Amino acid sequence: MKIGKLKLKNNVFMAPMAGITDLGFRTVMREFGCSLCFTEMISAAGLIRGTEKSYRYLESAPNDKPLGIQIFGSDPDILADAAKIAAEAQADLVDINMGCPAKKVLKNGAGAALMRNPQRVAAILKSVRKAIDIPLSIKIRSGWKHDEINAIKIAGIAEDCGVDALIIHPRTVTQGFSGLADWDLMAEVKSNLQIPVIGSGDIRTPEDALRMHALTGCDAIMVGRGALGNPWIFKGISKYFGKVSAGHLPSPAERKEVIFRHLEMNIALYGESRGIINFRKHLLWYTKGLRESAQFRQSIVKIGGKKELVESVNRYLDSLENTGIADERSVL
Known about the structure:
This protein is of the alpha/beta class. The protein contains 14 helices and eleven strands. β8 (136-143), α7 and β9 form a beta-alpha-beta unit. α1 runs antiparallel to α11, α9 packs across α10 and α11 runs antiparallel to α12 (272-286).
């Protein structure tokens, strides 16, 4: 698959997710077949001001490629300058967030608020397109609410302004993450565009990805919450698209290996204390749906040291090794 001049090994991507898709998380997803990852959403204004927090989100590594850097804001000039910074930081693609429903983003006219201002969308995209020569994408929603569905209009503006790909999560802003994604709308958007359309929303199993692809004709699949604690989903999806030979439910030993590798990357990125605290949410996801996980999950929320955390994980997963493992999530 190609997005502009960017060549990708497959059409299975990881969605940008605030507080989640840092370098360690992206590295794990890539190990299981994800071909394109994105940074967390980064404030364009923060990059321009040179704030440490914004620049920290740019942290990458040689094996963290290809990388999409997602920025947000509402000022065309600021977004253009931020896109230049992203390109200088070795981004392979810049994505502009026009779909975030968070109130703190909306109140500044950014994220999904832009879908209510098509003229501003055009001004932003023209400005950013002139500023960078690497691939440019935007991520949108269906619209503001059920009677303000304008994804097709915004998608047309994007294509006219030289955007190389469109990512659509077909829920409205007022829906948030509730209800179902409107895959019929995704199919309609796809039928109206020549540029690649990347589908996002309700991909929790490989079967979902296959169904989305078949029903919508989208060019690529973007996995979001379905990958939390479950990088094996990428191997399963790749199996369906003919890129690997098999997918399977991970054994406790395999799960443990991934958990500890991710933990070490988290500690290297944030230091032990902050890294452990940050990793606890991932550990909750890695063990969600496993047999007798409730007690384990309660026990680890206050653990602050690496040694104690490792011992707790070993104790729990070793107890499952000889008695079978139940997982509600399919990876095949």
